[in-house]
Amino acid sequence: MTRWQLPGTANGWVTDGGLETDLIFHRGLDLPDFASFPLVEDDTGRAVLEDYYRAYVAVAARAGAGLLLETPTWRANTDWGARLGYDADGLRRVNRAAVEHLRALADEVADDVEGTLVVGSVGPRGDGYLAGDLDADHYADYHRPQLVSFTEAGADLATAYTLTTVAEAVGVVRAAQDVGIPVAISFTVETDGRLPDGTPLGEAVHRLDTATEAGATHLLVNCAHPDHVRPALGEDPGPPGAWTDRVAGLRVNSSRLSHAELDEAEVLDEGDLPDLVRRTRDLAEALPEVRIVGGCCGTDSRHVAAMWDGWTPVGPRRTA
């Protein structure tokens, strides 16, 4: 059986920005525990989400690129769901509804963009900035129900974001393999280019691929400023094989603050937009397989639009 691969598009794939920070700081929403998934439960919430995603439809249309519509389900797992009053049935309902909502939008905009995929978004079991335990099988059992819901609802693939350990990444991939849904893995790094548990990014990619027989469709890095990812490129690459060839996506923070500093921040740091654009493009140039570009904390459609303005992460890369 041929392993699923992200389809090719002429100019790569646009994805969105920092959903939760946009909703909180720009739209005035209260998101307990940084959870946006409850918005899919009513018409008002779905309207807010649709307005958010349509801004990225416009970016992809202008860029002549594909579009990844990623569900607002980063917190829609057992532990975080329980804090918000969701049991297993409630989580299954909301995860399915999130996929179905974006599938309807994808169908509606099919003529406007080169291609659209609906992605089920998985978040870490614990805090996205702290390393968790090291039991991969435990994580597989934990994340499997959410992946089942995405599969039942017809998601094209799943992506696990802001993972802090190889063990959780391995668990997610194993669960996705059990369920039969393609899955991508996105690690986060600290200001030194290493995972929060101290593992060099290149080593983490090698260990994940070794443990899962390269079962992840592709890798990304998210929730870090480009300057925080850059040191990883200077690390000892570990075993033979270019780990950088596995990194297909970047979703960068606008801020240079560390994760600990961001946790304490009361004002949104939207960064220096021209500088962020330049550094994101430079980082993409250093990672030969990057074809997905978007944002994370502190970014919105303005940031992502500027990243894509006159530039593409694939083919003969060009600058404005």
From TrEMBL:
Keyword line: Metal-binding, Methyltransferase, Transferase, Zinc
PROSITE patterns the record matches: HCY
This enzyme's EC code(s): 2.1.1.10
Domain of life: Bacteria
Biological process (GO), any one: methylation
Residues holding Zn(2+): C223, C296, C297
Span of domain Hcy-binding: 1-311
Names of required cofactors: Zn(2+)
SUPFAM superfamilies linked: Homocysteine S-methyltransferase
InterPro entries, A to Z: HCY_dom, HCY_dom_sf
Keyword Transcription regulation listed: no
Keyword Membrane listed: no
GO molecular function list: metal ion binding; methyltransferase activity
Principal EC category: transferase
Pfam families in UniProt: S-methyl_trans
Annotated protein name in UniProt: Homocysteine S-methyltransferase
